[in-house]
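Exercise 7. Given the encoded structure of a 234-residue chain, write a plausible sequence.
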């Protein structure tokens, strides 16, 4: 009968490591659940040693918020279904399409399988898992409510995503207004004021200082318009 090495968390939040003989992984999982243990990882031992997890390099880049929402929601669903944490991470690693998140999940899976808590594994990647996220997971592991907390985190991230989207949408209108206003000002100085200058020059009248200043600015803009193009392009 095969032997399985496992890592679990008891109702008091204490990490427990051990081995159990059973026909398959499901039997071990059922046995541990009957003992009110929250399973972190299960792996079949070969020659008395558990099979090592494949290495994965962590990433320092930012993960898309949408990817984190999907990750948290799917993680919560699988935990609620009684799937072991390492198995959840394995599935999430294979399913995610985010090139930044995938190696992070792989590294977390390796760390958790090696006996590290999920909280500590997440804490190693501050660019992916915020301090709030890590602290919430820590509280969830201690209280044995990981599925509920992950679901709440997914909802929180969804709300944050919606807020960001609304902010971006709200910023589009004033930006368009500003661009339109600048375009009108440039058109005024480049095309309209020169016509008025020609008119006043033909009348040979004395102009106020402010008007002469505007005509001067218009002349400079017409003479050095290419400098403005270079500045905008830069």
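Solution.
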């Amino acid at each position: 009968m095969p032997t399985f090495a496992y890592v679990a968390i008891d109702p008091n939040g204490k990490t427990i490591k051990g081995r159990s003989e059973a026909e398959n992984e499901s039997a071990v999982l059922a046995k541990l659940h009957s003992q009110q243990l929250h399973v972190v990882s299960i792996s079949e031992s070969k020659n008395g040693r558990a099979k090592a997890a494949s290495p994965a390099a962590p990433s320092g880049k930012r993960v898309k918020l949408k990817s984190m929402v999907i990750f948290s929601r799917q993680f919560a669903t699988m935990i609620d279904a009684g799937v072991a944490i390492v198995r959840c991470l394995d599935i999430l690693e294979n399913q995610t399409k985010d090139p930044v998140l995938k190696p992070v999940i792989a590294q977390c899976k390796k760390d958790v399988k090696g006996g590290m808590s999920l909280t500590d594994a997440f804490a190693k990647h501050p660019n992916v898992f915020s301090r709030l996220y890590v602290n919430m997971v820590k509280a969830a592991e201690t209280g044995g409510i990981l599925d509920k907390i992950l679901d709440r985190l997914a909802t929180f991230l969804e709300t944050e995503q919606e807020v960001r989207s609304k902010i971006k949408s709200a910023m589009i209108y004033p930006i368009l207004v500003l661009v339109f206003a600048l375009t009108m000002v440039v058109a005024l100085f480049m095309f309209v004021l020169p016509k008025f200058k020609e008119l006043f020059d033909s009348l040979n009248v004395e102009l106020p200082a402010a008007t002469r200043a505007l005509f001067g600015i218009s002349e400079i803009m017409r003479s050095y318009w290419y400098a403005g193009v270079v500045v905008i392009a830069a």
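Remark. The longest strand covers residues 38-46. Students should compare their own answers with the one above.
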